[in-house]
Amino acid sequence: MNKLLALADYPVSAVKLGFDIPSFDMVLTFLLRFLFIVGGLVAVLYLLLGALAWITSGGNKESVDKAREKIQAAVVGLVVMFAVLALMVVIENIFSLGLGISKPILFPKLIN
Questions:
Q1: φ and ψ at residue 99, rounded to 5 degrees
Q2: What is the pTM of this model?
Q3: Tens of pLDDT along 50-100?
Q4: Three-class secondary structure assignment of the chain
Q5: How far is 67 from 77, CA to CA, in rounded Å?
Q6: Which residues neighbour 73 within 8 Å (Cβ) at sequence distance 6 or greater?
Q7: Residue 109 to residue 105: CA distance in whole angstroms
Q8: Cβ proximity of 26 and 104 under 8 Å
Q9: Of 10, 46, 75, 89, which sits most exposed with the smallest number of CB within 10 A?
Q10: Is residue 100 part of a domain?
Q11: How far apart (Å, rounded) are the C-alpha atoms in residues 100 and 30?
């Protein structure tokens, strides 16, 4: 018991990390933007895999059809992703919201 009391007598100073710890809304903004970037890269990779499958199909109709379906799925995915991004930017600008795409996410605060 005396050891605990003796340790409590030492002053404790704040630790300096060398950087600011990001707030929760900044972390969410980063994660949302990161997921859109990863989704776009995955769609482009899937498009390239479809193109490679088409090139290496050797004229086989089934292989060409599978490759075409991959390419169509990748293009549809990219179009949907860009449409969602455009819609979110329009909504952010019309309603002056921060949803994380063109403006950082902002949570309401009770105390400033």
A1: -100, 0
A2: 0.75
A3: 999 999 998 899 999 999 999 999 999 999 999 999 999 999 999 988 888
A4: CHHHHHHHCCCCCCCCCCCCCCCHHHHHHHHHHHHHHHHHHHHHHHHHHHHHHHHCCCCCHHHHHHHHHHHHHHHHHHHHHHHHHHHHHHHHHHHCCCCCCCCCCCCCCCCC
A5: 15
A6: 46, 50
A7: 12
A8: yes
A9: 10
A10: no
A11: 8
**Residue 102 phi, psi dihedral angles, 5° rounding:** -95, -20
Q: Which residue has the tokens 């990219």?
A: 78
The number of residues in the chain equals 112
10 Å Cβ neighbour count for 46?
Answer: 17
Domain annotation covers residue 17 = no
Alpha-carbon span 50 to 64, nearest angstrom: 9
* Residue 79 structural domain: 23-95
* Residue reference for tokens 């900044």: 26
